[in-house]
Amino acid sequence: MRELPQSLTPPHSGDAIETEIQLSRRALLSGAGALVLLGVAGCSQTLDLPSLQLDDVTTGSVRPIRPSISVDKNITGPDVMYASLTDGGFTLPEVPYKKVKPEFRRQIVVDPTGEQPGTIVVHLQDRLLYLVQPGGEAIRYGVGIGKDGFRWSGRANIQYGKEWPVWTPPAEMIARKPELVKWQGGQPGGLTNPLGARALYIYQDGKDTGYRIHGSPEWASIGQAMSSGCVRLINQDIIDLYSRVSKKNPVVVV
């Protein structure tokens, strides 16, 4: 017979009985637990989920909090959207987009306006322009707006648009800035033209409001209130917006 190590002593008969009782008690409790589950399940192999009040909703049936956003080939990374490009014989310089706040860069968002698709909505306070899209989305652009006393708001329409438009300063502007008299006959389109690469002309009740949605070589003015009332975009953005706008698009400025 193999001897026990000296450090171990054989259990007393009472200890063995106590251990056996503990094991029996554990087995009894485990069996009771199983019987409870079987009782709940009606002694079948399948549990009755309604009686257990468990959530049986599949994750695939849960609606997302925010709808998915469309993919547009002209709305990608800012390094692509604001790269240098040649248009109409002019080479637009690259925009240092990292100096433009992310919220003012071109992007697709959930439409916050509630307007019909095709409507251009300008939020003056937020310095944002929305082109409403079908399906509850909008393309958003950062804009610069007019200084206090030079802003217009209301509902109107885009009457027409021009590529590389001629800029003619109004008489009251020439009165404030006499150096502009050289352009009283019109400044030809070009890289330094204040109207930039494109201009959309806003009419209300068939009359020219004198206000435009246009591009600007001054990308740093986006998000600022410093123009003479018009709504200005980065040149790369006005080219994109212009390509999406047809004649008579509604315009809402609020």
Notable characteristics:
single chain; 254 residues; alpha+beta; 9-stranded mixed beta sheet; two-stranded antiparallel ribbon; globular
- Briefly note the structural class of the backbone: alpha+beta
Q: Return the average pLDDT rounded to an integer.
A: 81
How many strands, which pairing sense, and closed or not: the largest β-sheet? 9 strands, mixed
The Rg value, from CA coordinates, equals: 36 Å
Put simply, the count of helices is 5
Q: Strand order within the widest sheet?
A: 3-6-5-4-13-8-9-10-12
Would you spell out the secondary-structure blueprint of this structure?
Layout (H helix, E strand, L loop, with lengths): L12 H28 L8 H4 L25 H4 L3 E3 L2 E3 L14 E4 L9 E4 L4 E6 L3 E6 L2 E2 L7 E10 L7 H6 L21 E7 L2 E10 L8 E3 L3 E4 H10 L5 E4 L1
Parallel strand pairs: 4-13, 7-11, 10-12
Antiparallel strand pairs: 1-2, 3-6, 4-5, 5-6, 8-9, 8-13, 9-10
Description:
The protein is of the alpha+beta class and 254 residues long. The protein has helices spanning 13-40, 49-52, 78-81, 171-176, 235-244, and strands at 85-87, 90-92, 107-110, 120-123, 128-133, 137-142, 145-146, 154-163, 198-204, 207-216, 225-227, 231-234, 250-253. A nine-stranded mixed β-sheet has the order 3-6-5-4-13-8-9-10-12, with helices on one face. The chain is globular and about 50 Å long.
